Structure formats: structure tokens, C-alpha cells
Amino acid sequence: MRARDTDWDGVRLHVVTGKGGTGKTTVAAALALALAAGGRKVLLVEVEGRQGIAQVFDLPPLPYEERKIAVAPGGGDVYALAIDAEEAMLDYLEMFYGMRRAGKALSKMGIVDFATTIAPGFRDVLVTGKTSEAVRRKGKDGRRVYDAVVLDAPPTGRIARFLNVTNEVSGLARMGPIKNHADLVNGVVSSPETAVHFVTLLEEMPVQETLDGLQELHTIGLPAGGVFINMVRESLLPDSVLKAAAKGRFDPGELVLGLKAAGLTDGGSTGVSVAEALAEEIADHAHRAELEHRERLALNKAGRPRYELPLLADGVDLSGLYELAESIRVQGAA
């Protein structure tokens, strides 16, 4: 299928990271749906063992196998894979040594857990390696099995180390299958076919972590993607009102007149107490809008494509997930 005209033409691995609580898994799932729209085939991968994909799509826990979980708008398919480090290691032993049966015996003895505990970087090699294999995989017809792969990656504070595979295993092996495997993974992760996207909220801490994460990727030479601002609240008030309220210059008397005109009074009297309560809400909203404006300006300095996803009043159910996917597609991210 011909690639669509998007901000990420040519990108086949979309890595999604973000500070905890920003909705990283939700955005990764919506991005997978958006990328699959129009008849494409996309794999959505998770690596943290939280079964977050199953929760977002309201499914039972996912096994360690690729299976279809959703149909995208226009007939595309979304597959999912919940990577288990132990199973990935068995795949690794089979791929390079033909030792899957022996690997299962080692697993029963606890050797697999021992190996990944004393060498945490090796665990990252295993799970990123499985993802990279899916990116490269071809069918019998010579075409790529998946048009794109979306990786629901670890949080922002760990993303650079997680992806910097070659350095992580440098202390484990300087040659042989492990080193070759790490180099293959690094070849995918650091290529123009990969983009690392950040999910944030318009709040100081997640925005700062996003900026720090982008800088860290730049330092180690990994490809930064876009910034997805999640849970954006729509402002229902004119800028002039917000500015006045933020400076404490909003007149509750205007609300009193408006309430009277609408036939809404407080116990049949002047309606002042209702107006004051509303004025306090407006002031809080104005201060929030002012904060969000500052955080947008900070994100602008990063110079990365930016996408804003709405706060869903009813929470993120399947319908909301498709709504977010459409927003992503309309904004040109997929």
C-alpha cells in the first residue's frame, strides 16, 4: 500500500514514551489505530508487563503472541503483542543457538531471571530485539508483514537507556551473537525509519521531562519524533475574560446581571453568592489557562511537531479511543 502523506512518511517504528500518568499507553493505542486506518496492518507492542493494551481495548490479558485486537477505520487491522522477557529469551536461544528446549529447562531453573537480573540491559536487548524483528519481518511475497509498528515504551526517564542498546550490552559481549543482535536492533532504532514520540500534559513536570528526554535523545543520536499533548481542556471563555480574571480584574457584577437575565437567582434574592462562586471558578480556570500557555511556549522551543488530543469527558472507552485516533490522523501524525 502506498505511504500516506503525513508528518512521518517513511517511519515504520513509532516509539511512544511519556511520564507516568500522561496517558502514554492510550496515545500509543490511538496512534496504532490511526496508522492502520485505510487498510494498513499495524502491530502495537508493549514491554512493561502491565497488560496496558488489554485494558485500553477492554480485552482479557494478552498472551505472548501476535493477535488481531481491533479494526481501524477504513478496514485496517491492529495486532498486539505483549512481550515477555523470558519468552523473548527463549526465542533468542532458538534463533541463534537452536536451543529452545534447553532454554525451557534453564527457565525452570531460574537461569533466565538470573541472567536478566544481573544484566538488566540484556532484558532491554531482548524486548527491543523482538520489536525490531517485527519491523524488519517480511512475508513470502517479500513485502513487510507490518506497515508500521508502535512500541508502548518505558517512561521518559528511562527511554534513552532503554533504546541505547549497543552501549547497554557493551559490558556483556564485544563479539558474537549477543553483540551482533544488539547491533541489528540499534540499526533499526537509530535509523530514519524510527521516531520516538513523547506524550505530555500541559503541566510543569511532564513538560520538563519531555524537554529533558528530547535533549537526551539528541545527545546520544537517536531520532526524536513529535510531542503529543494529551487531555487538553477546551477553553469556553474569551481571551479578554481570561486575562482579566487572571489579573483579578473580573467583575462578579457582570455575572449577577447575567444570572438575573437568565432567571437564575440565589433563593429569589440578588444572586450575589452564586455569582461569586462562579467568579472564583473563572479565576481558577484563568490561572490554569495561563499555566498551559506558558507550557505550550516551552514546548514550542523544542521545535518538534506537536499534536493536541482532547480531554474526553466520559473517559477513554473504545469510542473515545477511536475519537483520539481520528484527531491524530486529522492533525497529520498518521
Q: CATH superfamily membership of the largest domain, which one?
A: P-loop containing nucleotide triphosphate hydrolases
**DSSP helix fraction:** 40-55%
Q: Whole-number radius of gyration? A: 24 Å
CATH structural class of the largest domain: Alpha Beta
Shape: elongated
CATH topology of the largest domain: Rossmann fold
Keywords:
334 residues; alpha/beta; Rossmann fold; 2 domains; eight-stranded mixed beta sheet; 14 helices; elongated
Structure description:
This protein is of the alpha/beta class. It has two domains: 13-233 and 311-330, 3-Layer(aba) Sandwich (Rossmann fold), CATH 3.40.50.300; 239-287, no CATH class. The protein starts with 12 loop residues before the first strand and ends with a helix. The model has no long low-confidence stretch (mean pLDDT 85). The protein has 14 helices and eight strands. Strand 6, helix 10 and strand 7 (224-232) form a beta-alpha-beta unit. Helix 3 packs antiparallel against helix 4 (100-108), helix 5 (111-118) crosses helix 6 (120-136) and helix 11 crosses helix 13 (272-300). The chain has helices at residues 24-36, 52-56, 85-97, 100-108, 111-118, 120-136, 156-163, 165-169, 177-189, 204-220, 239-246, 252-261, 272-300, 318-330, and strands at 13-18, 41-46, 67-71, 77-82, 148-152, 194-200, 224-232, 306-310. 39% of the residues are buried. Strands 3-4-2-5-1-6-7-8 form an eight-stranded mixed sheet, with helices on both faces. This is Anion-transporting ArsA/GET3 family ATPase. Pfam families: ArsA_ATPase. Residues 13-178 form the ArsA/GET3 Anion-transporting ATPase-like domain. It comes from Streptosporangium lutulentum. InterPro entries: ArsA/GET3_ATPase-like (IPR025723), ATPase_ArsA/GET3 (IPR016300), P-loop_NTPase (IPR027417).
